[in-house]
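To the team - pyrroloquinoline quinone complex, inputs and output below.
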Amino acid sequence: MLMSDIETPIHEAMSADELEARLRAIGEQRYHHRHSFQLMLQNGELNRRQVQAWALNRYYYQSMIPLKDASLIARLDDPALRRAWRTRLVDHDGEVEGEGGIARWLKLTDGLELDREMVVSARRVLPATRFAVEAYLHFVRERSVLEAIASSLTELFSPLVIGQRVSGMLKHYNFVSAETLAYFEPRLTQAPRDAEMALDYVKRHAERPDQQQAVLEALIFKCQVLWTQLDALHHAYVAPGHVPPGAWDGDAQTGTS
Ligand SMILES: O=C(O)c1cc(C(=O)O)c2c(n1)C(=O)C(=O)c1cc(C(=O)O)[nH]c1-2
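Output:
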């Protein structure tokens, strides 16, 4: 499908399957599996400092996902949908301290010898990371429930990129291990389950052309949220290497700043 096909305004309602095909075409063209930072990460072309910067900044995204999901649950009036959606909160926060995706992500930042307090404080994430992640939070809070659910559909594409990332990182970097990358293993089953549920909702509820257009735009927006985070990492830590004032600069292994 051509880019112009994606961007052509919708005047007549599509079938649910046509809508799905358009969504998948957007992912194929715009998801972060195509980003040069992601390719460098999986091809072993980053140094340890650059991988640390990725893990530190990505923690901020992870830590905000439950806030995003909780705000969505608060707006769902269907108990079945709330029940289904709340598994995401448990996946990330766990049932008890030390469990769940956020705790597993901290195993990665610990393994990379980043100071935990510095990571959790998010003091030294890139400004663009912060702005992109906050834009996602605002989008889910402010747009319709249909658009909010559609914006999670990047998860349709995450298992592929996660598989390539994990195998590439294990192959190329001696400073990560299967244990420190343990965050990703459960995502390979959680993400398809979550994405199928969201896709089913979107296919059943986006009937009018304006709703279908809004759904496609929500997915494009979310691809941009992910893309922008990698743009910022590339600009700061690869080339030209302009670390913004106040952002982590590879000096925080001691956690002094
Ligand atoms: O590793 C990745 O490339 C990747 C991508 C995405 C995504 O596509 O948004 C998510 C995740 N991971 C992830 O781990 C995760 O928990 C997650 C939640 C969401 C969401 O929008 O609700 N996306 C993603």
